[in-house]
Amino acid sequence: MLLASLLVPAIFCANTASGAYVVPVADGSGGWADALAKAKALVSQMTLEEKLNITQQNNDFPRVGEVNRLGYTGLFYADGAEGVRGAPYSSAFPMALNGAGSFDRDLMYRRAVAIGQEARAKGINVQFGPGVNILRSPGAGRAFKYNGADPYLSGQAAAEHVKGVQSQGVMSTMRHYIGNEQETGRRWTSSNIDDRTAHEVYIWPFQDAVHAGVASTMCAYNGVNGSYACSNPTSLGKWLHEELKFQGWVMSDFGAIVQGQEVNSANAGTDTVIGATFTAYTDDFVQGFVYPFGPDSVLASAVANGTVSESRIDDMAHRIVSAWYKLGQDKEYPKLNTSVNALSQEHNDLIREIGSKSIVLLKNDDLLPLSGTQSLYVFGQAASVDLYGAPYPVSFAFSPDQDMGTFLGGQGSSYVTAPYAITLFQALQSHARAHSTQVFGYFDNFNHTNQAAYAAIANTAGAACLVDVRHTCSEGYDRENLTASWEGDETILSVASQCSNTAVIYSSCGPFNVSSWSDHPNVTAILDAGGLGQEAGNSLVDVLFGVVNPSARLPYTIAHKLEDYPALPDFEIQPLNTSFQDVEYTEGLFVDYRWFDKNGIEPAFEFGFGLSYTTFNYSNLNIQSSTANLNQYAPANSTELYDCLALVTIDVCNSGNLAGSEIPQLYIGSPADGAPIKALRGFDTVGLDVRAKKKVEFQLTRRDLSFWDTYNAGWTLPDGEYKVYVGASSRDIRETGTFSLLH
Ligand SMILES: *[C@@H]1O[C@H](CO)[C@@H](O)[C@H](O)[C@H]1NC(C)=O
Ligand SMILES: *[C@@H]1O[C@H](CO)[C@@H](O)[C@H](O)[C@H]1NC(C)=O
Ligand SMILES: *[C@@H]1O[C@H](CO)[C@@H](O)[C@H](O)[C@H]1NC(C)=O
Ligand SMILES: *[C@@H]1O[C@H](CO)[C@@H](O)[C@H](O)[C@H]1NC(C)=O
Ligand SMILES: *[C@@H]1O[C@H](CO)[C@@H](O)[C@H](O)[C@H]1NC(C)=O
Ligand SMILES: *[C@@H]1O[C@H](CO)[C@@H](O)[C@H](O)[C@H]1NC(C)=O
Ligand SMILES: *[C@@H]1O[C@H](CO)[C@@H](O)[C@H](O)[C@H]1NC(C)=O
Ligand SMILES: *[C@@H]1O[C@H](CO)[C@@H](O)[C@H](O)[C@H]1NC(C)=O
Ligand SMILES: *[C@@H]1O[C@H](CO)[C@@H](O)[C@H](O)[C@H]1NC(C)=O
Ligand SMILES: *[C@@H]1O[C@H](CO)[C@@H](O)[C@H](O)[C@H]1NC(C)=O
Ligand SMILES: *[C@@H]1O[C@H](CO)[C@@H](O)[C@H](O)[C@H]1NC(C)=O
């Protein structure tokens, strides 16, 4: 006893005395060995100054340093969650959140391939995305860059995105690692997440991106447990580098290395900085645009006095250069020219397809699909161009006041200036011309008691009304409410009081407030459009007229009341200049639908919900599970986490009168203590002709079936029986079963 109690503090002291945490060096595992060997050979010829030079983005924006004499070109990067940002002639794709809502892996992949093609055409080496933070609170400003509220969905989308972009030889960047779930006070909040929740919810999608071979990681602005994400030895060092064995390079978010954290950041595993130094706990640049890394920096002086070792600098350079080799960028990579025209008809068509396959049909009392011959009355500020005359139908809105025109996607630093944009009204006009019908537009929400329009509607047999509203969203702030802007609700209610066939279309970056009109008897259709990109109007028209049978699902829950959600951003947070403001992730594992299930809260529309113009039935659930005597425990860095331990199959049949696609979803009820009632662990997209039937297969991996065991710090298969739920949403469960594993 005595000996032990003396030893523990002694070891603790020895560790602190010998310096801060130092992240392990890249070891070439997971398929990186060749690239690492080449990188080591090249870096061994670099001087210390050159090595430091390639760890910084200096004034040569947007490039992370080069070493010209050795033929190392450096890395040009571009932001973007909706395409290649900051360059003319780039396509404006639907938001990442729309990609997730398609629940269609192939579409997610093709979206990423196209973005990768545009980046490569312009000579961009590194394309930022996927964003894989979790839509923890409904108004989160950057939610449009993310893949919704569920870690499994987010992880699947992340993997497809990484594979797609990197198939073009372009590096993909997973971000914002980790805990950047709100914009409010993002530089001075600390996201406090318990260990199990961190692993089962927040690290999870990053793990899938690493498994898919992602080349780079962007660390976040915020703190995690009171220590900056970019200098956090637990989240960056232990989780990312030791547990996930990440072999690529870590860059900071723009200016995320704050003054005083240069040494800790380097030692925790940040390899590169983007942007200059900020003062801690504020939104202010250090005067004079100071770079924290580079040949003439705090990092350089830390190397000189030994607080950062030269081997850490070598490892930084190895990681950066090995990613360059891994993606084949040492060979004939296009020279940077952001003016290169990367647009193509093929990409326009793909954008239209992703758009129509990501519009979620939430309600349909026989209004849709519209017949080709109806007269249409179109209302709402989002159906046309900006009434205040912005050059594009979408305004670059850092401010929620600028919420006019067709909504193409989330705003802020990753916003792509669309080369063109099709509004709903334009697309309807083209359709009306082709079908000799009439379409009328009234876009000023403040003129919603428009008696002339209402008289015309009353006198037109079979007239249908469309109301297109929005609530903009952007990096930099969170939405304080989810309600349609510019008196959208009043417009909807006014139109619905006069028009018995009213379809509401809304756009935003996540959940919307539908509570004052979703049950109105004259609101006979509701569409959640998200942000559709440059083909917005055409994608909507394809769904409205049934050219495309909708199949998308909500990647988040739509609640009746704001208070029903487990977490909301704390809008009262102010900088203190001296410490972090805590954001406690008290809901733990119970994010989104898991919270509604646990607390018996009825949502307006649940996670995974979405209608079609046809119907599907499910039959013949079959479960096969491993009969081997399994090891119950697998360490965090185990290579067995993606092994398949159970196989579930089910038949899905199109029982309606129209061809369409169904999205069967598999949820697991784990016997582990404290597990959610249901957690998504599988989904598929099944296209079926009328009366056609197909067997769908879901593979469940060791990680899918394990819980994070904080005591053993690893993944453990729980004792007991697993429940299997297969259905059309998180609440529309069609078949259930159980299985057990031997251990
Ligand atoms: C450092 O990199 C920049 C490009 O980012 C380049 O212009 C400069 O020549 C490099 N300096 C050295 C010493 O290689
Ligand atoms: C944060 O603190 C919780 C509770 O002590 C712990 O479980 C978790 O691992 C910590 N995370 C980090 C990044 O230190
Ligand atoms: C070494 O240099 C770093 C960076 O300038 C500084 O923060 C640290 O205090 C120095 N340490 C010693 C022991 O001189
Ligand atoms: C960049 O691309 C544009 C458009 O193709 C072209 O006009 C221009 O000459 C190119 N610039 C360079 C430096 O190659
Ligand atoms: C309201 O709409 C009517 C019909 O479109 C139009 O004549 C009138 O000028 C509008 N009123 C305002 C205040 O914009
Ligand atoms: C919602 O928030 C916006 C600001 O983002 C504000 O202009 C609007 O009045 C709010 N709406 C409601 C219904 O509170
Ligand atoms: C529905 O629309 C009709 C007009 O077609 C109107 O008479 C009726 O009052 C509306 N219903 C409601 C509840 O507003
Ligand atoms: C919708 O708005 C109403 C009225 O402001 C509010 O009571 C309700 O909580 C809101 N619901 C959501 C999901 O934001
Ligand atoms: C915090 O920093 C800001 C900006 O540098 C300054 O204006 C403010 O007075 C500071 N507040 C405190 C409490 O020191
Ligand atoms: C996992 O980590 C342990 C402890 O650091 C180490 O001994 C082991 O070799 C690692 N296994 C793999 C597969 O990397
Ligand atoms: C599913 O629908 C098909 C086609 O209508 C029908 O033949 C079959 O009996 C249905 N199966 C179930 C289980 O309802």
TrEMBL record:
<comment type="pathway">
    <text>Glycan metabolism; cellulose degradation.</text>
</comment>
<dbReference type="InterPro" id="IPR050288">
    <property type="entry name" value="Cellulose_deg_GH3"/>
</dbReference>
<keyword id="KW-0325">Glycoprotein</keyword>
<keyword id="KW-0964">Secreted</keyword>
<dbReference type="GO" id="GO:0005576">
    <property type="term" value="C:extracellular region"/>
</dbReference>
<dbReference type="InterPro" id="IPR036881">
    <property type="entry name" value="Glyco_hydro_3_C_sf"/>
</dbReference>
<keyword id="KW-0732">Signal</keyword>
<dbReference type="InterPro" id="IPR001764">
    <property type="entry name" value="Glyco_hydro_3_N"/>
</dbReference>
<feature type="domain" description="Fibronectin type III-like">
    <location>
        <begin position="662"/>
        <end position="730"/>
    </location>
</feature>
<dbReference type="GO" id="GO:0009251">
    <property type="term" value="P:glucan catabolic process"/>
</dbReference>
<dbReference type="InterPro" id="IPR017853">
    <property type="entry name" value="GH"/>
</dbReference>
<feature type="signal peptide">
    <location>
        <begin position="1"/>
        <end position="19"/>
    </location>
</feature>
<comment type="function">
    <text>Beta-glucosidases are one of a number of cellulolytic enzymes involved in the degradation of cellulosic biomass. Catalyzes the last step releasing glucose from the inhibitory cellobiose.</text>
</comment>
<keyword id="KW-0624">Polysaccharide degradation</keyword>
<keyword id="KW-0378">Hydrolase</keyword>
<dbReference type="Pfam" id="PF00933">
    <property type="entry name" value="Glyco_hydro_3"/>
</dbReference>
<dbReference type="Pfam" id="PF01915">
    <property type="entry name" value="Glyco_hydro_3_C"/>
</dbReference>
<dbReference type="InterPro" id="IPR002772">
    <property type="entry name" value="Glyco_hydro_3_C"/>
</dbReference>
<dbReference type="InterPro" id="IPR026891">
    <property type="entry name" value="Fn3-like"/>
</dbReference>
<keyword id="KW-0119">Carbohydrate metabolism</keyword>
<dbReference type="InterPro" id="IPR013783">
    <property type="entry name" value="Ig-like_fold"/>
</dbReference>
<dbReference type="Pfam" id="PF14310">
    <property type="entry name" value="Fn3-like"/>
</dbReference>
<keyword id="KW-0326">Glycosidase</keyword>
<dbReference type="InterPro" id="IPR036962">
    <property type="entry name" value="Glyco_hydro_3_N_sf"/>
</dbReference>
<comment type="similarity">
    <text>Belongs to the glycosyl hydrolase 3 family.</text>
</comment>
<dbReference type="GO" id="GO:0008422">
    <property type="term" value="F:beta-glucosidase activity"/>
</dbReference>
<protein>
    <recommendedName>
        <fullName>Probable beta-glucosidase G</fullName>
        <ecNumber>3.2.1.21</ecNumber>
    </recommendedName>
</protein>
